[in-house]
Amino acid sequence: MIPFEYAVLRVVPRVERAEFVNVGVIVYSQRSGYLDAAVHVDHDRLRALDPQADVEAIVDAVQAFAESCAAPTGPLAATAPGERFRWLTAPRSTIVQTGPVHAGLTEDPAAELARLIDRLVR
After folding, report:
1. pLDDT higher than 90, residue 76
2. Which of 37, 69, 92, 106 is the most buried (most CB within 10 A)?
3. How many CB atoms lie within 10 A of CB 47?
4. For residues 121 and 10, what is the distance between their CA atoms, to the nearest angstrom?
5. CA neighbours closer than 13 Å in the CB half-sphere of residue 93
6. DSSP codes joined into one string, 11-56
7. Which residues contact 36 (CB under 8 A, 6 or more apart)?
8. Percent helix, strand, coil in the chain (nearest 5)?
9. In this structure, what DSSP letter does residue 79 have?
10. Is the C-alpha dihedral spanning 56, 102, 19, 88 positive or negative?
11. Are 35 and 28 in contact (CB under 8 A)?
């Protein structure tokens, strides 16, 4: 079994209300050198929390998180997967946030990512 960590990516369209919609999962395994994210933004759920939400801008921001895992560019390209995972999961009070980091064991981090996106987001 391979140890891994994960965090749920969420959107908080109105930070002052602290309501959120899960939109993705980031999975990191130091042992296997794996870091990836899967995302799925449900536009209707997002608009239920904030009818005025700029959904396209939010989708772009969520996609940027995912791209920072699998194919980083710019300054992130030079960072190790663990460093990127810690940066991505650092607490922030913006519209796109990550939840707490959780740990587990798996035989296949990529399969675990698929399982978690289905269970926690879709």
Report:
1. no
2. 37
3. 14
4. 9
5. 4
6. E-SSGGGT--EEEEEEEEETTTTEEEEEE---HHHHHHH-TT--HH
7. 26, 27, 69, 70, 109, 110, 113
8. 40, 25, 30
9. S
10. negative
11. yes
Structural contact between residues 103 and 3, judged by C-beta atoms closer than 8 angstroms: yes
Both tokens of 35, joined, read 């870091």
CA distance 103 to 89: 13
Q: How far apart are CA 122 and CA 117, in angstroms?
A: 6
Q: Is the pLDDT of residue 92 over 80?
A: yes
| pLDDT on residue 94 | 85
Say if residue 72's pLDDT is above 80. Answer: no
**Under DSSP, is residue 86 helix (H, G, I), strand (E, B) or coil?**
helix
Question: Which residue shows structure tokens 């035989």?
Answer: 107
CA torsion through residues 53, 55, 61, 66, sign: positive
Mean pLDDT value across the chain? 93
pTM of the model: 0.93
For residues 44 and 87, give the distance between their C-alpha atoms in angstroms, rounded to a whole number: 29
Neighbours of 17 (CB within 10 A): 10
